TrEMBL record:
This is Methyltransferase. It comes from Sphaerisporangium melleum. It holds the Pfam family Methyltransf_19. InterPro entries: SAM-dependent_MTases_sf, SAM_dep_MeTrfase_SAV2177_type. It comes from the Bacteria. The lineage of its organism: Bacteria, Bacillati, Actinomycetota, Actinomycetes, Streptosporangiales.
Length: 277
Protein backbone atom coordinates (compact mmCIF):
# COMPACT_ATOMS: atom_id res chain seq x y z
CA UNK A 1 0.00 0.00 0.00
CA UNK A 2 1.41 3.46 -0.87
CA UNK A 3 2.41 5.51 2.16
CA UNK A 4 0.67 8.80 2.74
CA UNK A 5 3.91 10.60 1.90
CA UNK A 6 3.92 8.89 -1.50
CA UNK A 7 0.41 10.15 -2.21
CA UNK A 8 1.44 13.59 -1.01
CA UNK A 9 4.40 13.60 -3.36
CA UNK A 10 2.12 12.56 -6.22
CA UNK A 11 -0.30 15.38 -5.41
CA UNK A 12 2.50 17.92 -5.63
CA UNK A 13 3.17 16.83 -9.23
CA UNK A 14 -0.37 17.32 -10.53
CA UNK A 15 -0.41 20.02 -13.20
CA UNK A 16 -3.86 21.56 -13.08
CA UNK A 17 -3.28 23.85 -16.05
CA UNK A 18 -2.90 21.09 -18.66
CA UNK A 19 -5.86 18.85 -19.52
CA UNK A 20 -5.30 15.18 -18.76
CA UNK A 21 -7.32 12.39 -20.44
CA UNK A 22 -8.11 10.68 -17.12
CA UNK A 23 -9.51 13.89 -15.65
CA UNK A 24 -11.45 14.75 -18.83
CA UNK A 25 -12.98 11.29 -18.65
CA UNK A 26 -13.78 11.80 -14.97
CA UNK A 27 -15.63 15.03 -15.74
CA UNK A 28 -17.63 13.40 -18.54
CA UNK A 29 -18.66 10.64 -16.13
CA UNK A 30 -19.88 13.25 -13.66
CA UNK A 31 -16.88 13.02 -11.33
CA UNK A 32 -15.35 15.80 -9.26
CA UNK A 33 -11.64 15.01 -9.60
CA UNK A 34 -10.90 17.42 -12.43
CA UNK A 35 -9.81 21.00 -12.99
CA UNK A 36 -10.80 23.97 -15.14
CA UNK A 37 -8.53 22.94 -18.03
CA UNK A 38 -10.05 19.45 -18.05
CA UNK A 39 -13.60 20.79 -17.94
CA UNK A 40 -12.91 23.22 -20.77
CA UNK A 41 -11.57 20.42 -22.98
CA UNK A 42 -14.53 18.19 -22.09
CA UNK A 43 -17.10 20.88 -22.85
CA UNK A 44 -15.41 21.46 -26.21
CA UNK A 45 -15.90 17.76 -26.95
CA UNK A 46 -19.56 17.97 -25.98
CA UNK A 47 -20.07 20.93 -28.33
CA UNK A 48 -18.53 18.95 -31.18
CA UNK A 49 -20.49 15.82 -30.37
CA UNK A 50 -23.55 16.28 -28.12
CA UNK A 51 -23.62 12.53 -27.42
CA UNK A 52 -20.16 12.52 -25.85
CA UNK A 53 -21.39 12.03 -22.29
CA UNK A 54 -23.59 9.12 -23.33
CA UNK A 55 -20.72 7.62 -25.32
CA UNK A 56 -18.41 7.78 -22.30
CA UNK A 57 -21.07 6.10 -20.15
CA UNK A 58 -21.47 3.40 -22.79
CA UNK A 59 -17.71 2.91 -22.79
CA UNK A 60 -17.72 2.50 -19.02
CA UNK A 61 -20.66 0.09 -19.16
CA UNK A 62 -18.81 -2.07 -21.67
CA UNK A 63 -15.88 -2.34 -19.27
CA UNK A 64 -18.22 -3.51 -16.54
CA UNK A 65 -19.92 -6.14 -18.69
CA UNK A 66 -16.63 -7.43 -20.04
CA UNK A 67 -14.97 -7.71 -16.62
CA UNK A 68 -18.02 -9.51 -15.27
CA UNK A 69 -17.91 -11.91 -18.22
CA UNK A 70 -14.24 -12.66 -17.61
CA UNK A 71 -14.83 -13.25 -13.91
CA UNK A 72 -17.97 -15.35 -14.29
CA UNK A 73 -17.69 -17.16 -17.61
CA UNK A 74 -13.95 -17.32 -18.28
CA UNK A 75 -12.67 -18.00 -14.76
CA UNK A 76 -10.27 -15.03 -14.63
CA UNK A 77 -9.32 -14.26 -11.03
CA UNK A 78 -6.61 -11.62 -11.56
CA UNK A 79 -6.61 -8.46 -13.64
CA UNK A 80 -3.96 -6.00 -14.78
CA UNK A 81 -5.87 -2.77 -15.46
CA UNK A 82 -3.66 -0.49 -17.57
CA UNK A 83 -4.61 3.18 -17.82
CA UNK A 84 -7.32 2.70 -15.24
CA UNK A 85 -8.17 6.38 -14.78
CA UNK A 86 -9.54 8.01 -11.64
CA UNK A 87 -11.49 5.61 -9.40
CA UNK A 88 -15.23 5.92 -9.86
CA UNK A 89 -18.25 3.64 -9.58
CA UNK A 90 -17.96 0.20 -11.14
CA UNK A 91 -14.20 -0.22 -10.81
CA UNK A 92 -12.64 -3.47 -12.00
CA UNK A 93 -11.98 -4.78 -8.50
CA UNK A 94 -15.56 -4.06 -7.39
CA UNK A 95 -17.03 -6.03 -10.27
CA UNK A 96 -14.53 -8.91 -10.14
CA UNK A 97 -14.70 -9.26 -6.36
CA UNK A 98 -18.49 -9.26 -6.43
CA UNK A 99 -18.17 -12.46 -8.45
CA UNK A 100 -15.11 -13.79 -6.62
CA UNK A 101 -14.15 -12.09 -3.35
CA UNK A 102 -10.60 -13.39 -3.76
CA UNK A 103 -10.08 -11.74 -7.16
CA UNK A 104 -6.91 -9.66 -7.50
CA UNK A 105 -6.47 -6.40 -9.38
CA UNK A 106 -3.38 -4.31 -10.11
CA UNK A 107 -4.19 -0.81 -11.36
CA UNK A 108 -1.77 1.27 -13.41
CA UNK A 109 -2.05 4.90 -14.55
CA UNK A 110 0.38 7.70 -15.38
CA UNK A 111 -1.66 10.51 -13.77
CA UNK A 112 -0.46 11.29 -10.22
CA UNK A 113 -4.05 12.02 -9.19
CA UNK A 114 -4.83 8.31 -9.55
CA UNK A 115 -2.16 7.51 -6.96
CA UNK A 116 -3.59 10.22 -4.71
CA UNK A 117 -6.83 8.24 -4.66
CA UNK A 118 -4.98 4.95 -4.34
CA UNK A 119 -5.21 4.67 -0.57
CA UNK A 120 -9.00 4.85 -0.61
CA UNK A 121 -9.09 2.41 -3.50
CA UNK A 122 -6.89 -0.10 -1.70
CA UNK A 123 -8.76 0.01 1.59
CA UNK A 124 -12.17 -0.35 -0.06
CA UNK A 125 -11.75 -4.10 -0.65
CA UNK A 126 -11.20 -6.07 2.56
CA UNK A 127 -11.11 -9.47 0.82
CA UNK A 128 -9.39 -9.56 -2.57
CA UNK A 129 -5.93 -8.12 -3.07
CA UNK A 130 -5.61 -4.77 -4.90
CA UNK A 131 -2.74 -2.42 -5.71
CA UNK A 132 -2.30 0.80 -7.64
CA UNK A 133 0.90 2.20 -9.11
CA UNK A 134 1.83 5.27 -11.09
CA UNK A 135 3.50 4.14 -14.31
CA UNK A 136 3.30 4.57 -18.08
CA UNK A 137 2.13 1.75 -20.34
CA UNK A 138 4.70 2.89 -22.89
CA UNK A 139 7.25 1.24 -20.57
CA UNK A 140 5.79 -2.25 -20.06
CA UNK A 141 8.87 -3.76 -18.43
CA UNK A 142 8.72 -1.24 -15.57
CA UNK A 143 5.13 -2.30 -14.91
CA UNK A 144 5.71 -6.03 -15.29
CA UNK A 145 8.68 -5.90 -12.92
CA UNK A 146 7.13 -3.56 -10.36
CA UNK A 147 7.06 -5.19 -6.89
CA UNK A 148 3.51 -4.01 -6.16
CA UNK A 149 2.27 -5.55 -9.39
CA UNK A 150 4.21 -8.75 -8.71
CA UNK A 151 2.69 -8.91 -5.22
CA UNK A 152 -0.81 -9.03 -6.72
CA UNK A 153 -0.43 -10.77 -10.09
CA UNK A 154 0.86 -14.32 -10.51
CA UNK A 155 2.13 -14.32 -14.08
CA UNK A 156 2.18 -18.12 -14.15
CA UNK A 157 -1.63 -18.13 -14.12
CA UNK A 158 -4.07 -16.57 -16.64
CA UNK A 159 -4.42 -12.80 -16.36
CA UNK A 160 -7.08 -10.43 -17.65
CA UNK A 161 -5.18 -7.57 -19.32
CA UNK A 162 -7.37 -4.47 -19.53
CA UNK A 163 -6.63 -1.68 -22.00
CA UNK A 164 -9.95 0.15 -21.88
CA UNK A 165 -9.99 3.57 -23.50
CA UNK A 166 -6.24 4.10 -23.31
CA UNK A 167 -4.58 3.04 -26.57
CA UNK A 168 -6.08 5.96 -28.50
CA UNK A 169 -3.61 8.07 -26.54
CA UNK A 170 -0.71 6.05 -27.94
CA UNK A 171 0.61 7.27 -31.28
CA UNK A 172 1.82 5.01 -34.07
CA UNK A 173 5.37 6.15 -33.31
CA UNK A 174 4.89 4.85 -29.76
CA UNK A 175 3.80 1.51 -31.28
CA UNK A 176 0.63 0.27 -29.56
CA UNK A 177 1.15 -3.15 -31.20
CA UNK A 178 4.48 -3.58 -29.45
CA UNK A 179 2.93 -2.56 -26.11
CA UNK A 180 0.23 -5.23 -26.41
CA UNK A 181 2.76 -7.79 -27.60
CA UNK A 182 4.99 -7.19 -24.57
CA UNK A 183 2.20 -7.51 -22.05
CA UNK A 184 0.85 -10.53 -23.91
CA UNK A 185 4.22 -12.23 -23.83
CA UNK A 186 4.28 -11.96 -20.02
CA UNK A 187 1.08 -13.96 -19.48
CA UNK A 188 0.27 -17.64 -20.17
CA UNK A 189 -2.26 -19.22 -22.53
CA UNK A 190 -5.80 -18.73 -21.29
CA UNK A 191 -5.14 -15.09 -20.45
CA UNK A 192 -7.55 -12.55 -21.90
CA UNK A 193 -7.25 -9.11 -23.49
CA UNK A 194 -10.05 -6.61 -22.89
CA UNK A 195 -9.63 -3.66 -25.23
CA UNK A 196 -11.71 -0.64 -26.23
CA UNK A 197 -10.72 2.20 -28.52
CA UNK A 198 -12.13 5.49 -29.80
CA UNK A 199 -13.06 5.62 -33.49
CA UNK A 200 -14.23 8.26 -35.95
CA UNK A 201 -15.68 5.70 -38.37
CA UNK A 202 -19.13 7.21 -37.85
CA UNK A 203 -18.09 10.85 -38.04
CA UNK A 204 -18.53 13.36 -40.81
CA UNK A 205 -15.47 14.98 -42.36
CA UNK A 206 -16.08 18.14 -40.32
CA UNK A 207 -16.28 16.13 -37.11
CA UNK A 208 -13.12 14.24 -37.99
CA UNK A 209 -11.18 17.48 -38.29
CA UNK A 210 -12.47 18.92 -35.02
CA UNK A 211 -12.94 15.93 -32.72
CA UNK A 212 -9.38 15.52 -31.48
CA UNK A 213 -8.60 19.23 -31.04
CA UNK A 214 -9.57 19.36 -27.34
CA UNK A 215 -6.73 16.93 -26.69
CA UNK A 216 -4.10 18.86 -28.63
CA UNK A 217 -3.03 20.74 -25.50
CA UNK A 218 -3.47 17.80 -23.14
CA UNK A 219 -0.78 15.49 -21.78
CA UNK A 220 -1.53 13.05 -24.62
CA UNK A 221 -2.99 13.60 -28.10
CA UNK A 222 -5.94 11.50 -29.20
CA UNK A 223 -5.42 9.05 -32.05
CA UNK A 224 -8.78 7.59 -33.16
CA UNK A 225 -8.48 4.42 -35.25
CA UNK A 226 -10.68 2.63 -37.76
CA UNK A 227 -12.26 -0.77 -37.22
CA UNK A 228 -9.52 -2.41 -39.29
CA UNK A 229 -6.80 -0.62 -37.32
CA UNK A 230 -8.27 -1.61 -33.94
CA UNK A 231 -8.78 -5.17 -35.15
CA UNK A 232 -5.06 -5.42 -35.91
CA UNK A 233 -4.34 -4.67 -32.24
CA UNK A 234 -5.76 -8.12 -31.47
CA UNK A 235 -3.23 -9.94 -33.64
CA UNK A 236 -2.12 -13.13 -31.91
CA UNK A 237 -5.29 -13.28 -29.81
CA UNK A 238 -8.58 -15.07 -30.55
CA UNK A 239 -11.57 -12.74 -30.33
CA UNK A 240 -14.58 -13.97 -28.40
CA UNK A 241 -18.12 -13.57 -29.73
CA UNK A 242 -19.37 -11.09 -30.93
CA UNK A 243 -15.91 -9.96 -32.07
CA UNK A 244 -14.87 -6.32 -32.35
CA UNK A 245 -18.04 -4.22 -32.30
CA UNK A 246 -19.32 -0.89 -31.04
CA UNK A 247 -19.17 -1.05 -27.27
CA UNK A 248 -22.96 -0.87 -26.97
CA UNK A 249 -23.21 -4.02 -29.09
CA UNK A 250 -20.85 -6.14 -27.01
CA UNK A 251 -23.13 -8.54 -25.09
CA UNK A 252 -25.61 -5.75 -24.26
CA UNK A 253 -27.49 -5.81 -21.00
CA UNK A 254 -30.89 -4.13 -21.10
CA UNK A 255 -30.45 -3.18 -17.45
CA UNK A 256 -27.16 -1.38 -18.04
CA UNK A 257 -27.29 2.43 -17.75
CA UNK A 258 -24.75 2.91 -20.53
CA UNK A 259 -26.21 0.82 -23.34
CA UNK A 260 -28.51 3.46 -24.80
CA UNK A 261 -27.34 6.27 -27.05
CA UNK A 262 -30.09 8.89 -27.60
CA UNK A 263 -31.29 9.51 -31.13
CA UNK A 264 -29.75 6.36 -32.53
CA UNK A 265 -26.25 7.82 -32.20
CA UNK A 266 -22.96 6.06 -31.76
CA UNK A 267 -20.70 5.45 -28.78
CA UNK A 268 -17.64 6.43 -30.84
CA UNK A 269 -15.77 3.36 -29.58
CA UNK A 270 -15.11 -0.25 -30.48
CA UNK A 271 -14.65 -2.95 -27.91
CA UNK A 272 -13.70 -6.59 -27.82
CA UNK A 273 -12.40 -9.38 -25.61
CA UNK A 274 -9.93 -12.00 -26.78
CA UNK A 275 -8.14 -15.05 -25.37
CA UNK A 276 -4.48 -15.96 -25.73
CA UNK A 277 -4.23 -19.35 -27.43
Amino acid sequence: MPELSEAGTAASRINTSIPHPARIYDYLLGGKDNFAADREAAEHLIQLSPGTREGVRAHRAFLGRAVRHLATERGITQFLDLGTGIPTQGNTHEIAQEVNPAARVAYVDNDPIVLVHGRALLTSTPTGMTSVIEADIRRPDEILGHPEVRAVIDFDRPVGIILAGVLHFITEQEDPHAIIKRFGSAVPSGSHLLLSHITLDFASEAQREEFTKPYDKSTAPMVPRSHAEVLRLFEGWHLLHPGLVEVVQWRPDRHSFGDYIPGGGHAWAYGGVAVKP
